[in-house]
Amino acid sequence: MAMNDSVNILNSAYLAVEYVDSFLPDNPLQQPFKNAWNYMLDNYTKFQIATWGSLIVHEASYFLLCVPGFVFQFIPYMQKYKIQQDKPETWEKQWKCFKTLLFNHFFIQLPLICGTYYFTEYFNIPYEWEEMPRWYVLLAQCFGCAVIEDAWHYFLHRLLHHKRIYKYIHKVHHEFVSPFGMQAEYAHPLETLILGTGFFIGIVVFCNHVILLWAWVICRLMETIDVHSGYDVPLNPLHLVPFYAGARFHDFHHMNFIGNYASTFTWWDRIFGTDSQFIAYKEKEKKQQLIMKKKAN
């Protein structure tokens, strides 16, 4: 009975979204995107699309999403949004980070990306435009992937902080007490494999078209670069996502080293109480701000 109720709720939600979607204006970018997609299918093999296409999507998305945070360091106005203002970025740290990223991307992640084609062939994942899911289905799938990845990340990330193994693997990622966007994937190769596994679980569960691989890559990079940005910028659209952790939440993890282990959402830390120090820190900040206001008045 409970299963039938859940199915009925999901079907009703799907129909409701379809009804709302019917009233939305046509997307002017849809036809150009369709033409580009069909051109890609006509001129490249599935292996080339799955392998080199995925690599291009990852590299282009990663470094383009890093651009705003990189530019912020040169804009005096944006410094008021920097979370750890006493620890500015340095060229030395950013260059070291960039070199490690290139190694991880091409010697760790690229071999994994090379398996994408075989994954799509084994599970008969379609590439055709006609079988591409609608935008709201794709959005729901990405959210499902994020929920799964977040659970994996919380427990494995917390394990990597265990005192017996921390210094061998996860300590590399914590070289930067004040994170910046490009540092999101700065990690020990083993950590890239261990925590990166959570990214693929959702793909195995939800993937019904190759577009989900790329959409989920972009969503995951958008999230991880944002929480590592070091800037808590107002009007951030990601803050509209329910239970979204955000930059301030993860920045505290780098500053404190303990707690706030989840990647995207706050519920696992709340359930297990590993956000208690963060909550206490926020309360202390509020009290200090109230004292400063009283003195100013």
UniProtKB/TrEMBL annotation:
<feature type="transmembrane region" description="Helical">
    <location>
        <begin position="192"/>
        <end position="217"/>
    </location>
</feature>
<keyword id="KW-0812">Transmembrane</keyword>
<feature type="transmembrane region" description="Helical">
    <location>
        <begin position="100"/>
        <end position="120"/>
    </location>
</feature>
<dbReference type="Pfam" id="PF04116">
    <property type="entry name" value="FA_hydroxylase"/>
</dbReference>
<protein>
    <submittedName>
        <fullName>Methylsterol monooxygenase 1</fullName>
    </submittedName>
</protein>
<keyword id="KW-0472">Membrane</keyword>
<feature type="domain" description="Fatty acid hydroxylase">
    <location>
        <begin position="144"/>
        <end position="274"/>
    </location>
</feature>
<dbReference type="InterPro" id="IPR050307">
    <property type="entry name" value="Sterol_Desaturase_Related"/>
</dbReference>
<keyword id="KW-0560">Oxidoreductase</keyword>
<dbReference type="GO" id="GO:0004497">
    <property type="term" value="F:monooxygenase activity"/>
</dbReference>
<dbReference type="InterPro" id="IPR006694">
    <property type="entry name" value="Fatty_acid_hydroxylase"/>
</dbReference>
<keyword id="KW-1133">Transmembrane helix</keyword>
<keyword id="KW-0503">Monooxygenase</keyword>
<feature type="transmembrane region" description="Helical">
    <location>
        <begin position="60"/>
        <end position="79"/>
    </location>
</feature>
